[in-house]
Amino acid sequence: MDDPGLERKLFGLTFKNPVGLAAGFDKNAQLYNELSDFGFGFVEIGTLTPKPQDGNPKKRLFRLKDDRAIINRMGFNNLGVEEAVKNLRKSHRVLIGGNIGKNKLTPNTLAVKDYLICLEALFNDVDYFVVNVSSPNTPGLRELQDKEPLTALLKALKTENSVLAKKRKTQERPILLKIAPDLTDDQLLDIIEIVEVTAIDGVIATNTTISRDNLKSEPRLVNENGGVSGKPLTKRSTEVIRFLSEKSNKAFPIIGVGGIHSPKDALEKLEAGADLIQLWTGFVYEGPGLIKRINKAILNKNNH
C-alpha cells in the first residue's frame, strides 16, 4: 500500500509503511523483492554469520497450532554473509535490514570480530543493521546481552560504522539492537543506558521467548527446546516496548515484534511506543493479507 499517511521517517530512512518482515524468514537474502510485493515496508534479512553454518539438527521448527505459536531452534542456519552479499546485488524494491550474529563455534571472547566481519561485508548493501544477541538457539549468545560485553560490542560496531562511512564516502548505517523478551526490568533499564552510552539508533523488541507459560498445546510439542514466537508473546513484547518507551522518555526508536496476528495487535504495539512493527509468525498463520489489513487500520486511526 502506497499512501503518504503510512510513511515513517526514522534514523534517516523513509519507510513507505511501518509494517516489516522480521529476520529469520529470508535468511540468505534470496526473496526480499518477492516478499516486498506482499506490501511490506521493509524486509530484514539474516541472521547472517561470517561463515556458512548448518544450524541445529532437524527437526527444529514446530507449529503449536492450539497456541498460534511456533517453536524454533534453527541456530543461525545460513549460507554465510558473502553469499547474502551476492544476493543483495540485485536492485532492491524495498528497504533492507541486515541482521547479524556470530558463528556457533566462535567463543564469546571473539564475538566482536564476527559482528565486525558481517558489518563490513554488508555495509554497502543494507539500509540498517540489527545486532542479534538475543536468539536462544546459539549456546551462550544471550550472555552478550550483559552490560559490559554488550557495551563493548556496540561501541566497536559504531566505530567501524563511522570508519566505513568515511572510507566509502557515504552515510553511516543505523545500528539497532534486538533484545529478548525474557529480560528483567533491571536488565531493560541497563539496555536503555547502553543505548544512550553507545548512541546506537534504536531497539527491536523482542526476539523469541524461552518461557513456556500458559501454553495449551500438547506437552511433547511444548517441551521441545527453542524459542517460542507468535500469540503467546503478544502481551510480553508489548510490555517490553511500553517499558522501554516510558522509562527512556521515548529517547530512541523502537521496532515492535512479537505475536502480531491482527490489526488490533499491531495498533497496541504502536500505542505502547513502537515506531515500526515486524511480522513473522503472524504472517505464517494469518497469511499475507494481514499486512494490508494492518496498514488500513493504521490509516483509519490516523484519519479519526
From TrEMBL:
Catalytic residues identified in the record: 135
Stretches assigned to the Dihydroorotate dehydrogenase catalytic domain: 6-298
Principal EC category: oxidoreductase
The protein's required cofactors: FMN
Keyword check for Oxidoreductase: yes
Xref: Gene3D superfamilies: Aldolase class I
Topology in the lipid bilayer: Peripheral membrane protein
Pfam families attached to this UniProt entry: DHO_dh (PF01180)
Compartment(s) where it occurs, according to its Swiss-Prot or TrEMBL record: Cell membrane; Membrane
Source taxon at top rank: Bacteria
Main location: membrane
Cited SUPFAM superfamilies: FMN-linked oxidoreductases
Cofactor note: Binds 1 FMN per subunit.
Keywords recorded for this protein, A-Z: Cell membrane, Flavoprotein, FMN, Membrane, Oxidoreductase, Pyrimidine biosynthesis
GO MF term (any one): dihydroorotate dehydrogenase (quinone) activity
Binding site for FMN: 23-27, 47, 99, 132, 178, 206, 230, 259
One GO cellular component, as annotated: plasma membrane
Subunit field text: Monomer.
Record's function text: Catalyzes the conversion of dihydroorotate to orotate with quinone as electron acceptor.
This protein's name: Dihydroorotate dehydrogenase (quinone)
Organism: Arenibacter certesii
